[in-house]
Amino acid sequence: MEKVQMYNPTGKKIKDINAPKEVLSYPYKQHLIYEALVNFQTNQRRGTASTKARGEVRGGGQKPWRQKGTGRARTGSIRSPIFKGGGITFGPKPKDYSYRIPKKAKRNALKSALSKKFADKNLFVVDKLTLDKPKTKNGIKILEALKVESALIVDTHENKNLFLSLRNVPKVKTIDYNQLNLYDVLRYKWLILSENAFGLLMEKLK
């Protein structure tokens, strides 16, 4: 087991708690983190480039000129790709760029990032992150007491006051432990977890 320091919201150390060694002592695997991060970012991509084919362009229901006798090439619609304003031949359509990697690889990449945070002493566990009411000032007080900025704060979604209090603070993001992902762990310098969220996360990853 690994020993993790627990603090209270005023920044005072309370005690050491146990954490599974297979999570916080997981070896740092840079290539695995790279693969998982590229997968995450690619899956966020939205292929929105789109053009209209001749059947999707508005208009062109009437034959522009008669079939024979005009000396011009026969045509059935002014929305043909050969006309200005017509459809696009072989144009782009919305594309799904997402792909899968093994669940175990995703989990191990997250464990590797968490162990790096722990080794760099950028991981905090706080006994309680509850607030009486949703107020930004109260949320900032916790950050100031812990002397952190650019922080990812993890708790359960039931703690609505915390989420509402910190949602407008720059360089700070609050997230439910079930939605914790590699991208956010790497994006923010500090990782702060409530005691409850930390226990649930360790149980999920071990």
Please describe what this structure looks like.
There is one protein chain. This protein has 206 residues and is an alpha/beta fold. The protein folds into two domains: 2-45 and 98-205, Ribosomal Protein L4, Chain: A (3-Layer(aba) Sandwich), CATH 3.40.1370; 48-96, no CATH class. The chain has helices at residues 21-24, 30-44, 103-119, 136-146, 160-166, 182-187, 195-205, and strands at 2-7, 13-19, 123-126, 151-155, 172-176, 190-194. It has a six-stranded mixed β-sheet with strand order 2-1-3-6-4-5, with helices on both faces. α2 (30-44) packs across α3 and α4 (136-146) crosses α5. The radius of gyration is 27 Å and the shape is elongated. It starts with a strand and ends with a helix. The model has no long low-confidence stretch (mean pLDDT 92).
Entry summary:
By secondary structure, the chain is an alpha/beta fold.
Sheet bearing the most strands, described? Answer: 6 strands, mixed
CATH topology of the largest domain: Ribosomal Protein L4, Chain: A
In which order are the strands of the major sheet placed? 2-1-3-6-4-5
Q: What is the CATH level 1 assignment of the largest domain?
A: Alpha Beta
* CATH architecture annotation of the largest domain: 3-Layer(aba) Sandwich
What radius of gyration results from the CA coordinates?
27 Å
Shape: elongated
Q: Structural class, please?
A: alpha/beta
Task: State the share of residues found in helices, binned by percent.
Answer: 25-40%
Mean pLDDT: 92
Count of individual beta strands? 6
CATH superfamily of the largest domain: Ribosomal protein L4/L1
Question: What proportion of the residues form beta strands (DSSP E)?
Answer: 15-25%
Unreliable runs, pLDDT <50, ≥5 residues?
A: none
Q: Order of SSEs, N→C?
A: EEHHHEHEHEHEH
- Tell me the distance between the termini: 12 Å
Number of helices: 7
Q: How many distinct folded domains? A: 2
